[in-house]
Amino acid sequence: MNRIGVFGGTFNPVHIGHEIAAVEFYGKFELDKLLIIPANIPPHKKSPEDILPQTRFDMCRICFDKYKSLYNIEASDIEIKKDGVSYTFNTLETLKKIYPDSLIYFLVGSDMFLYLEHWHRYAELLEMCVFVVACRNNNNTDRHEILKLRENLISRGYQIELLDNAAFEISSTELRDKIKSNNYDLSDYLSPEVLNYIKERKIYVLQ
Ligand code: DND
C-alpha cells in the first residue's frame, strides 16, 4: 500500500522548522509522496487577509522544489483552488478519491495535535489518516500532554505516531514580526529562496 504524506498549514510564511519536519517525516515514514498543502482560509485562525493564498502557495513551492531531484515532495494547490474555509476533513476526502489504495499520514505540530478535538469532524478524521506529531519545542509539559492524548487515542483504536524530531523553536508569527521591523537577518529561519521572494516582493513589510 502506498504511503501518502500530507503536511497542511497556513505557511505564512513557510520556514525552516516546517522544512526540517517535512523532510524528516518523509524519511522516517518511508513516504511514496509528500504533499505540502497551504490552506485557502485556515479553519482556526483569522484569515491572513493581507497575504494571498497564492503567495503562501508560491513560497511553499519554491521552498520544496529544491528537493525534487531527491524526494517526491511537492506543494499542492488543492486547498487554495477551492473557495472558503479549508477543512482538513474535506481535503482528506478528496485525497482519498485521488489515491484510493493509499494510507494517508498527516503531519501536525504539537500545538495543533493538542487542539485536534476542536477540528471539524474530528472523530471521522481520526479514522481517515494516521496523525504524526512533530515537536515544536522542548517543553516537558507539552510533551507530557502529547503522550497522554496519544495514549488515550491509541486506546480508542486510532493510529497516532510521533516524529521524534529535534525541535526547531520558531514560528511564522515571530518571523512576520521580525520582517515588519525591517529585520531581514533571517537566514537561520527561512530558506534562501523564500527569503529572496519575501524581500523582492516586500511581503509583510508595513506599507
Ligand atoms: P496552522 O495554520 O496551524 O499551520 O495549520 C495546521 C493545519 O491544521 C492546516 O492544514 C489546517 O487546515 C489544519 N487544521 C487546523 C485546525 C482545524 C482544522 C484543520 C479543521 O479542519 O477543523 P502553520 O502554518 O502555523 O504550521 C504548519 C504546521 O507546522 C502545523 O501543524 C504546525 O504545528 C507545524 N509547525 C511546526 N512543526 C515543527 N517545528 C516547527 C513548527 N512550526 C509550525 N518549528
CATH class: Alpha Beta
What is the string of helix and strand elements?
A: EHEHEHEHHEHEHH
Measured distance between first and last alpha carbons: 50 Å
Low-confidence stretches: none
Strand order across the largest sheet: 3-2-1-4-5-6
The total beta strand count reads 6
- List the domain count as a whole number: 1
Percentage of residues assigned to helices:
40-55%
Largest sheet: 6 strands, parallel
Structural class: alpha/beta
Strand residue percentage: 15-25%
Write down the overall geometry.
globular
Task: Tell me about this structure.
This protein has 207 residues and is α/β, with parallel strands linked by helices. It has one domain (3-205): 3-Layer(aba) Sandwich (Rossmann fold), CATH 3.40.50.620. Helices cover 41% and strands 16% of the residues. It has helices spanning 16-28, 53-65, 88-98, 110-114, 122-128, 140-155, 172-180, 192-201, and strands at residues 2-9, 33-38, 73-75, 102-109, 130-134, 160-162. The chain has a six-stranded parallel β-sheet, sandwiched between helices. The model has no long low-confidence stretch (mean pLDDT 94). Bound molecules: nicotinic acid adenine dinucleotide. Residues 8-11, 17-18, 21, 39, 42-45, 86-89, 108-109, 111-112, 119-120, 134, 136, 168, 170-172 line the site of nicotinic acid adenine dinucleotide.
